[in-house]
């Protein structure tokens, strides 16, 4: 790796080497039967060079020929994107505890036994179809550049999920737990799912109209994803975001607070530096409804005249770093989910949505099918909603947040409470 | 390479195995707001090993040849854990042993076109779109993906097949005040670079629609009679029916499996649905799937009756149905899953004017903005549409998303057009991305479809 960096630095004005070594294992059950036990081992090296103000990229899975890789990066720089940034020198980053060595001792056989016990517990109480899975992964990634940065981080990740399928359908209720090493899916979570499943036997097509909707933590990413699409440095630079020039303005309800916390131990994407070697930071996106900041990578921070926020992450070794928000947290409110439900005369609580990736996302428009949701009448859940869509504008919906749950739910790199929004447009019968 | 794979897998203690090694070269040009944002080519490679032992079937992917021994060990261990904890052993359906070497059939080979020429063509379309009224941004991307796949199995099959996909796609953004509208454009296919040349008129038409959308009214929520144009009829076929024809989805949902028995009447008498990846010159073309099985045309629905299903060898074995050659992987990082190749509703006999007259009052919905299924329910978005009154197109509408249910929607197909267009965008995301997922069809009239909205 050092040799590659040296070679690239000699041939270009600046150079950066990023590497990753990953392994992951997963075990899954379909309809209560053990179905899969797979392993993946992958490695990769990505090289970026800057020469004559242009950036070039190359990557490989197997570093067989350093010179060829450098040559390929230089060739790509010839017609490449013009950049004005420099690779940063980052030396002191906070130590984070993102690796739990006990991940190495997990046995697939133990997970199979645990899965069988969990499925039996759910089956006994519901008789429904249960799908479940476990996974564990380790990653060792590092970055070094010609400015002198040399950082690396080891991560471990563990996840377990259970899904209870609504009879006669393919959608259902879903619970997930994630941690740095083995963690069970708690009885409490399983019981919550079982309780709702029993209520789902009754199916209701709601009347078309406006009503209060509780977006459970698993469903309001449909709204947040629209915010993040607009609060992206590319949308800002291209001036196609409705949020351009609105930093400092109220864009959603004053009840809402949204931030990223790279150092939160309970979330899966802990990181002290990003894939470009920029230190990460705790970053407020929305404070009391006021739009505060956008995440940036080196390139767009430079183009927009902003400081890089350390959000330049690579989706894969093949992808260039781009600004990605991560470890997203939302501030809690003061009502329990039960209290939120009991205050609704006629409305819906939504666990799962489909089609959230389509429509005019940049503008905040959404029009989504409810794949898992329940109809509430006189403060009580009456049954599962069927053939129903929600639509509106995410900013408008989030402006009408009337309650926020007094508890957050962790799933992967998000920590969110349920939110109650008034006057959401529902299409039913 | 086949000999190397033979050597690598020489000592596997299993009932069946296969290994796929592939190289994948992607050359791309990404331009946004007239600036190059990314450009160049990259090469990746890796191996996917699948092992069947005592009825347990496991997949291991790896990227370094020196990991082969470890990969084999893990695959066998994984298969043994599965075998010890399953009552029904997995058995692949019988498939012919194939020895084949398939080169991509190209009219103009994108590998022979220089990067500067590719940049120039991207810039050409970008400038052209920007020159149209009200266009505020163009996100445009060109890529060609060259997969060179080597497949070997323990039954003696040895296949080398090349797949080369070329695509020019864009999001054309119009703007007025703070309102923006995006229209998608996609040109490309499996048979060469010529697919992205000479499409200027179509590009200008996309920009015109984007500008017109700024004046369109958001659609009013409700249930309508509507005509879907071929672009969105294809997405309907893919989302509302196609995914439920994929045997792995049906296998994993017993309730669906019970309802989707071959021979069940599920649609109106006029409805015929086909998956045919063997059709020449379309985006989804291939010869052998990633289990070494030759793909064949499958009549999925005939006169409204379910007549076929898409399979890999294991789902075919489990369900006792014929193999179809639909096990497809995204690339060297993944084991194959069941995918559609090229799905469409067979054209009928009616002109578009006849469909409009039969519609009378309703909506005309055009071009897809992505879709999703969850169980028997599905949604898909439309790029734009028109209100139809007395069989005549009226004002343009936007923000259209359709929701439906597998069991009711197919019975709502009322009339089928006599035209036929296959889409060129691809990109189905069922766990992995299939850039060659092809779909299309004729104009189709539905009696009842529900749209969300105000």
From the alpha carbons, calculate the radius of gyration of chain A and give it in angstroms.
Answer: 24 Å
Number of domains of chain B: 2
Strand content of chain B: 35-45%
- The overall pLDDT average of chain B reads 93
CATH class of the largest domain in chain A: Alpha Beta
Low-confidence stretches of chain A: none
Structure description:
- The complex is a heterodimer of chains A (429) and B (454).
- By secondary structure, chain A is an alpha+beta fold.
- Chain A is 21% helix and 38% strand.
- A 7-stranded antiparallel β-sheet of chain A has the order 4-3-2-1-5-6-7.
- In chain A, a hairpin with an 8-residue loop joins strand 13 (312-313) and strand 14 (322-323).
- In chain A, helix 1 (2-11) runs parallel beside helix 2 (66-78).
- Chain B is α+β, with helices and mostly antiparallel strands.
- Chain B has 2 domains: 2-213, PmbA/TldD fold (2-Layer Sandwich), CATH 3.30.2290; 217-452, no CATH class.
- Chain B is 21% helix and 41% strand.
- Chain B starts with a helix and ends with a strand.
- Chain B is globular.
- Strand 2 (33-51) of chain A pairs parallel with strand 3 (56-62) of chain B.
Summed up:
The complex is a heterodimer of chains A (429) and B (454). Chain A has 429 residues and is α+β, with helices and mostly antiparallel strands.
List the helices and strands and how they pair.
The complex is a heterodimer of chains A (429) and B (454).
Chain A: H1 2-11, E1 14-30, E2 33-51, E3 54-60, H2 66-78, E4 81-82, H3 108-126, E5 129-145, E6 150-165, E7 172-179, H4 187-199, E8 203-204, E9 209-215, H5 221-230, H6 233-237, E10 258-260, E11 283-287, E12 290-291, H7 298-304, E13 312-313, E14 322-323, E15 328-330, H8 337-342, E16 346-354, E17 365-377, E18 380-385, E19 389-393, H9 394-399, E20 401-404, E21 409-411, E22 414-416, E23 419-427
Parallel strand pairs in A: 8-18, 9-16, 15-22
Antiparallel strand pairs in A: 1-2, 1-5, 2-3, 3-4, 5-6, 6-7, 9-23, 10-11, 10-15, 11-12, 13-14, 16-17, 17-18, 17-19, 19-23, 20-23, 21-22
Chain B: H1 2-8, E1 16-32, E2 35-53, E3 56-62, H2 68-84, E4 99-102, H3 115-130, E5 135-153, E6 158-176, E7 179-189, H4 200-213, E8 217-218, E9 222-228, H5 230-241, H6 247-252, H7 254-259, E10 273-275, E11 298-302, E12 305-306, H8 313-319, E13 327-328, E14 337-338, E15 342-345, H9 352-359, E16 362-374, E17 377-389, E18 392-398, E19 400-405, H10 406-409, E20 413-416, E21 421-422, E22 428-430, E23 432-434, E24 438-441, E25 444-452
Helix pairs in contact in B: 3-4
């Amino acid at each position: 790796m050092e040799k590659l960096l040296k070679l690239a630095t000699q041939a270009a004005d600046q150079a950066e080497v990023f590497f990753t070594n990953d392994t992951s294992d997963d075990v899954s059950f379909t309809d209560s039967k053990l179905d899969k036990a797979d392993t993946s081992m992958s490695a990769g090296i990505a090289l970026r060079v800057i020469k004559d103000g242009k950036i070039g990229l190359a990557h490989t899975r197997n570093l067989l020929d350093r010179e060829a890789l450098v040559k390929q990066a230089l060739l790509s720089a010839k017609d490449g994107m013009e950049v004005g940034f420099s690779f940063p020198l980052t030396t002191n980053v906070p130590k984070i505890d993102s690796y739990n060595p006990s991940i190495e001792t997990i046995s697939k056989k133990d997970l199979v036994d645990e899965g069988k016990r969990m499925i039996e517990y759910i089956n006994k109480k519901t008789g429904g179809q249960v799908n479940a899975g476990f996974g564990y992964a380790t990653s060792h990634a590092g970055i070094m550049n010609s400015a002198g940065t040399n950082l690396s981080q080891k991560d471990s990740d563990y996840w377990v999920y259970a899904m209870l399928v609504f009879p006669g359908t393919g959608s259902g209720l879903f619970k997930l737990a994630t941690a740095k090493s083995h963690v069970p899916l708690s009885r409490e979570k399983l019981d919550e799912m079982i309780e709702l499943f029993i209520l789902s036997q009754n199916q209701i097509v709601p009347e078309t109209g406006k009503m209060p909707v509780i977006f459970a933590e698993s469903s309001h990413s449909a709204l947040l994803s629209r915010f993040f699409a607009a609060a992206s440095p590319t949308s800002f630079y291209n001036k196609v975001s409705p949020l351009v020039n609105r930093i400092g303005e109220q864009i959603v309800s004053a009840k809402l607070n949204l931030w990223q916390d790279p150092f939160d131990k309970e979330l899966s994407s802990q990181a002290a530096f990003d894939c470009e070697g920029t230190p990460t930071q705790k970053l407020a996106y929305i404070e009391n409804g006021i739009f505060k900041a956008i995440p940036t990578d080196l390139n767009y921070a430079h183009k927009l005249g902003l400081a890089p926020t350390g959000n330049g992450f690579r989706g894969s070794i093949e992808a260039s770093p781009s600004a990605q928000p991560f470890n997203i947290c939302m501030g809690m409110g003061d009502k329990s989910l039960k209290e939120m439900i009991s205050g609704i005369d006629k409305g819906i609580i939504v666990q799962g949505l489909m089609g959230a990736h389509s429509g005019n996302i940049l503008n905040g428009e959404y029009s989504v099918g409810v794949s898992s949701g329940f109809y509430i009448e006189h403060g009580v859940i009456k049954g599962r909603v069927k053939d129903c869509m929600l639509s509106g504008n995410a900013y408008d919906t989030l402006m009408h947040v009337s309650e926020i749950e007094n508890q957050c739910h962790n799933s992967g790199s998000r920590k969110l409470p349920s939110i109650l929004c008034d006057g959401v447009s529902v299409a039913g019968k | 390479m086949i000999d190397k794979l033979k050597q690598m897998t020489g000592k596997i203690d299993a009932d069946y195995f296969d290994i796929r090694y592939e190289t994948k070269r992607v050359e791309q040009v990404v331009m946004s707001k007239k600036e190059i944002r990314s450009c160049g080519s990259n090469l990746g490679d890796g191996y996917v090993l699948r092992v069947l032992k005592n009825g347990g079937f496991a997949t291991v992917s790896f990227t370094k040849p020196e990991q082969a021994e470890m990969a084999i060990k893990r695959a066998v261990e994984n298969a043994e854990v599965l075998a010890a904890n399953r009552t029904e052993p997995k058995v692949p359906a019988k498939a012919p042993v194939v020895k084949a070497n398939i080169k991509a059939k190209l009219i103009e080979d994108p590998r022979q076109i220089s990067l500067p020429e590719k940049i120039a063509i991207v810039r050409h379309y970008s400038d052209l779109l920007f020159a149209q009224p009200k266009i505020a941004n163009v996100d445009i991307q060109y890529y060609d993906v060259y997969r060179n796949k080597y497949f070997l199995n323990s039954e003696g099959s040895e296949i080398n097949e090349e797949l080369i996909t070329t695509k020019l796609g864009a999001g054309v953004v119009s703007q007025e005040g703070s309102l923006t509208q995006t229209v998608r454009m996609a040109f490309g296919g499996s048979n060469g670079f010529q697919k992205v040349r000479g499409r200027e008129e179509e590009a200008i038409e996309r920009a015109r629609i984007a500008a017109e959308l700024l004046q369109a009214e958001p659609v009013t929520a409700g249930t309508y009679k509507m005509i879907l144009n071929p672009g969105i009829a294809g997405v309907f076929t893919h989302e509302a029916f196609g995914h439920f024809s994929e045997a792995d989805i049906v296998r994993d949902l017993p309730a669906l499996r019970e309802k989707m028995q071959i021979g069940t009447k599920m649609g109106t008498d006029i409805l015929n649905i086909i998956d045919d990846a063997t059709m020449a010159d379309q985006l989804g073309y291939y010869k052998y799937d990633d289990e070494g099985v030759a793909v064949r045309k499958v009549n999925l629905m005939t006169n409204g009756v379910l007549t076929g299903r898409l399979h890999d060898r294991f789902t075919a074995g489990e369900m006792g149905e014929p193999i179809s050659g639909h096990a497809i992987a995204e690339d060297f990082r993944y084991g194959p899953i069941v995918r559609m190749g090229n799905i469409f509703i067979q054209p009928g006999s009616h002109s578009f004017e006849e469909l409009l007259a039969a519609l009378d009052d309703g909506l005309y919905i055009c071009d897809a903005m992505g879709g999703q299924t969850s169980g028997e329910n599905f949604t898909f978005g439309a790029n734009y549409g028109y209100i139809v009154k007395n069989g005549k197109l009226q004002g343009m509408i936007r923000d259209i998303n359709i929701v439906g249910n597998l069991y009711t929607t197919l019975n709502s197909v009322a009339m089928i057009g006599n035209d036929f267009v296959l889409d060129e965008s691809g990109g189905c995301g069922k766990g992995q991305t299939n850039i060659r997922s092809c779909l299309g069809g004729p104009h189709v009239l539905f009696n009842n479809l529900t749209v969300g909205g105000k």
